[in-house]
Amino acid sequence: MKDQLNISNWTCPLPLQNYPTIVMGHGSGGKMMSDLIHHMFLPLLGNEALNQLGDAAVLELDQYPTRVAFSTDSFVVNPLIFPGGNIGELAVYGTVNDLAMTGAQPLFLSAGFILEEGLPMETLGEITTAFSAACQTANVLVVTGDTKVVNKGHGDGLYINTTGIGLIPAEVAIAPENAQAGDVVIVSGTVGDHGMAIMSVREGLEFETRIVSDTSPLHELVETMLAASLDIHCLRDATRGGVAAALNELAKSSQLGITFEEAKIPLRPAVKAACEMLGMDPLYVANEGKLVAIVKSQVAEEVLAAMHSHPLGRDAVLIGQVVSDHPGMVLAKTGIGGSRVVALPVGELLPRIC
Amino acid sequence: MKDQLNISNWTCPLPLQNYPTIVMGHGSGGKMMSDLIHHMFLPLLGNEALNQLGDAAVLELDQYPTRVAFSTDSFVVNPLIFPGGNIGELAVYGTVNDLAMTGAQPLFLSAGFILEEGLPMETLGEITTAFSAACQTANVLVVTGDTKVVNKGHGDGLYINTTGIGLIPAEVAIAPENAQAGDVVIVSGTVGDHGMAIMSVREGLEFETRIVSDTSPLHELVETMLAASLDIHCLRDATRGGVAAALNELAKSSQLGITFEEAKIPLRPAVKAACEMLGMDPLYVANEGKLVAIVKSQVAEEVLAAMHSHPLGRDAVLIGQVVSDHPGMVLAKTGIGGSRVVALPVGELLPRIC
């Protein structure tokens, strides 16, 4: 292909040329990753479905009664086993949640395991057992798989790709660009638990209360919300880049602004303390069992009540509004009456989080 | 999960306990990989669709007029760029071919890129350009993707997972277990080209004629075959483990025997010479644009004629028969009038081939 390569087709002079090689920040869920996607992947591979950049693609097939949700995720979390879970259940719930963010009922998963030579068979057994249990919890079937082995020193024990298929009920109309001015913004629970759990193991930190990952499947919570009202306009899984990235992506897709009250963000005391100690902003820390919802204001109460009735939405709270001012921008109202721009993170806050 | 782990559930005393850790052979497409799948993955994750172990899962969805084919493949080929192609087009055609082996029309792909820190942006551009061109050739759309970055020294430049969706026409009835005694066995062209192309670069070998990979999309060839006759019972992509593994898997799934004439296997002179020099059996060498078909004998001529009309089936040849003797076993008739068992390869012939 070398002689067919036309660099001008795929790279914009800026900003990719600032980085002649891939750096960790390109996998951050922040601005550098967004640049890589917008300046290399979309120009070469883009189409109507991909360009939406939703958590999952929404496909309409000829003659098919319902839309199909289709989503992929590779998991490279380090360490493989962490407080509250391991890469096995993370790989199941991560893709289940991406499907759920379209309102789909997750049905089928594929599993691609890239094993590193030397991985203890017992570790693989423990992770596959957790993977299996997570499939049962989320009520999905693994119907196709692939196994590859790479040489020692060319992997990190185990990388897992899961790709999922779900069906979207006809009456559901959730999409990243569906927010409307006047809508309200809801967060489903405490933020930052997964990221700080990983961080605590990786850095060998001990806190008074053990921080555990929140990794959980969100599709039932979404079902409960949709049963309360169909006026749910956007859903976003707050994983890499945290709530800050989720809100920025929704503001950008809808070309509207978002304002929220920082003090309303639910935060476990241990996570708050750990973030303060490490100088991290919990808004940017990854979650694996939390969502951000943008909902018509008239149905906010019903939706919140429905969320509170579900264990994974018990701490759900209305944090802000969608506004027509400052399109594409997210503003946090701070405790002292001011406000600050919550931008997309630029580079890498915490690599290898999922 | 540690305290819930019950090793007796997932590992059979033999043969996994012979290997306390993952070794390269577990990714070979041979007996060791089959053991890993049968003794760990299937007991934990198995279900009707997964247990078929086809190139792709075949899913029947309520109210859907056609069956859905769903297949996943991770690509870890080394080197990333090789004579005749690179990991980009390999990743597209690999999954397109797995879908095509069910008779499906491939439609949508997901792309999961695991990038290693330090990968030159230009290499990523070249590979993504090839990936894009291959999608156009195969007429598939990438509709969802994921990008992860791992630290330098924890990857190998780039691993790609592609997972695909296709639709299977109602009248097609291809499945690994559908072979019948009396059916004939066809190979679509010369074998071993991909594996020997990779080998030649990796080992720095030079032959009189340059060996190039045969990486190509096979769905049109399959369409052409199905237009000639619907009595195509089994199709198998002869990738890892080569034609030997494909025939063994089909014999095992159908619980019938297969015999073929070794001298009829099409082989490029350069590949033959290289295999002889390296002491390798071309039957076990990987292909990326060749299929094995099991076809009702009455339609063999029509199917072969159709294959010969397509550039990717020009060298197709009838090599043998399905027999009710020696179920699950593959026998090659050798040039000197004898015969030998062609078993599933045990371990690793050539790692990191796809």
Describe the overall structure.
2 copies of one chain form a homodimer. Chain A is an alpha+beta fold. The first copy, chain A, has 3 domains: 1-46, no CATH class; 55-168, PurM-like, N-terminal domain (60s Ribosomal Protein L30, Chain: A, 2-Layer Sandwich), CATH 3.30.1330.10; 184-341, Alpha-Beta Complex (Phosphoribosyl-aminoimidazole Synthetase, Chain A, domain 2). The first copy, chain A, has 10 helices and 14 strands. In chain A, the strands form 3 sheets. In chain A, strands 9-11-8-12-10-13-14 form a 7-stranded mixed beta sheet. The longest helix of chain A is centred in the middle third of the chain and has 18 residues, at 121-138. In chain A, 57% of the residues are buried. At the A-B interface, helix 1, helix 2, strand 2, strand 4 and strand 5 of A face helix 1, helix 2, strand 2, strand 4 and strand 5 of B.
Largest sheet of chain A: 7 strands, mixed
Q: Regarding quaternary structure, how should these chains be classified? A: homodimer
According to CATH, what is the topology of the largest domain in chain A? Phosphoribosyl-aminoimidazole Synthetase, Chain A, domain 2
Helix content of chain A: 25-40%
Structural class of chain A: alpha+beta
- Measured by DSSP, the beta-strand proportion of chain A falls in 15-25%
- In the CATH hierarchy, the architecture of the largest domain in chain A is Alpha-Beta Complex
Q: Which strand order spans the largest sheet of chain A, edge to edge or round the barrel?
A: 9-11-8-12-10-13-14
Outline type of chain A: globular
Q: Could you tell me the number of beta strands of chain A?
A: 14
Q: What Rg of chain A, in angstroms, do the CA atoms define?
A: 20 Å
Order of helices and strands of chain A: HHHEEEEHEHEEEHHEHEHEHEEE
Biggest chain pair contact, residues each? A-B, 100 and 99 residues
CATH class label of the largest domain in chain A: Alpha Beta
What is the number of helical segments of chain A per DSSP (H or I, 4+ residues)? Answer: 10
Task: Tell me the CATH superfamily of the largest domain in chain A.
Answer: PurM-like C-terminal domain
